[in-house]
Amino acid sequence: MPRNLYKVQKLISKKRGKLDALHENSRDSKRLQRASARNDKLARAAAATLKARQVHVDRVSFFQECLKDIPGNLCLMDLAELVEKYIHRDASDIEQLQRERRKGRPPSKREEAIGQRTVGEEKEFMTGFWMPDLIQDEVRTKLLAWNGIWSSLSTIKFIRFTRDGAMRPSTFPPTGLS
């Protein structure tokens, strides 16, 4: 049985001639409904996957942009500064939102979301912040040549970097504390 909505429509139209001449509760009508529901479900799953991946793509693209500004080799202190810069990248937005808020009013949803994300990234930095291994020259050259696509990140080596300077290898895509 065809899985695709287009294929189902094509088969039914070959059989009947017109799709709009279907009875409401006919087998062909139900087939079209199932195929449409399947397409919707697949589209929602694909959108959720893209949204989940976008967080990691944004993180790697931030380090790519920072790497363009740094000409030489990086030490552990430079890595820690880059991670701190990444974690507090929206500090000016939070300050502006706090200034705009009237006294005694609760924080806006955007302010809460940025604050929660910052707290989560701080915790991740304590246990091991997932990032490209910018110490290695090979990784830096690959990162500078990276085209911004999720699937091409598999060629880059990643690490977990902690606040105290410890580094351990990590996997791509990031799962838990790998």
UniProtKB/TrEMBL annotation:
Organism domain of life: Eukaryota
Q: Which GO terms describe its cellular component?
A: nucleus
Pfam families in UniProt? Tma16
Ranges where the record places region Disordered: 96-117
What residue ranges are annotated as transmembrane?
none
User: Mind telling me which InterPro entries this protein's record contains?
Assistant: Tma16, Tma16_sf
Give the signal peptide range: none
Compositionally biased spans, kind Basic and acidic residues:
108-117
Give the family per the record. Belongs to the TMA16 family.
Q: What is this protein called?
A: Translation machinery-associated protein 16
Supply the source organism for this entry: Elaphomyces granulatus
